[in-house]
Design goal:
Length: about 290
Amino acid sequence: MNEIVAPLLAWGVPRLRDLPWRATRDRWAVLVCEVMAQQTQVARVVPKWQQFMQRWPTPGDCAQAPLADVLRLWSGLGYPRRCRNLHLAARAVVERHDGVVPNDLASLLALPGVGPYTARAVLAFADSADVAVVDTNVARVLARVTGTALSSRVSQELADATLPKGRAWEWNQVIIDFGAQVCTARSPRCSECAIAGGCRTYATFGTSWNADADPARTSALTSKPQARFDGSDRQARGRLMKMLTTSGVRVADVASVMKLGDDDRRAWRLVQSLERDGLVVVDGEWCRLP
Ligand code: SF4
């Protein structure tokens, strides 16, 4: 694997995408961006991240804000549970770490909603620590270069072993960008790939891509086909959350707001799931943000 490092850095460093959070080394700013960017397109994250950091530049600022305000700003990014967890994480940082996002893996992993990728991303991108991150892009590249479907543990071990010490910030950014732009999920651009010579999948298939035999398909941590969104519970919940950012909704109107026709039972089940997640409160006849 180490043979891919030099060519990938040479390819990627001059091409690093100009993303606003790449100019910061603030742990809170990195944490916010990493939570926002999970399963959400970068173009949608950029303006929201800028607004968020302007309004709540520290964990303490966010911790003091009502969750409803944070959810209003979050609207449009989807997955509001991530927002709720980020708000809880801000409060935990204030309570446990004097308002400063910690710089050790165990403490980061103990924060609400922070998993192995996010914790390592904070260390790599804020502190330039020698830590390898494995997101869906990186997991895909590792699987294809090795020509093997990888478990999450083996992916992380491979990433750790490949990391060029002292260049963690650049390396992690470059391999993520490479996966996002060249070694893409559906149609990798193998004919222009800087590391094709060291790629086992390319050695097997050349430019005749065989999606069925793609080792990334069955690797852990790689993106899998999403369940259909139209008509899903997620879509219905999203409709209600969007409406709640502007006003309360009468319980009797929830099915209509969710566009579920007269399926009040399904609507009520979804309201209860949002309530359990701490994203809505039901107060008599009304649903509101918490
Ligand atoms: S040769 Fe193709 S599959 Fe292999 S790393 Fe490059 S883009 Fe990915």
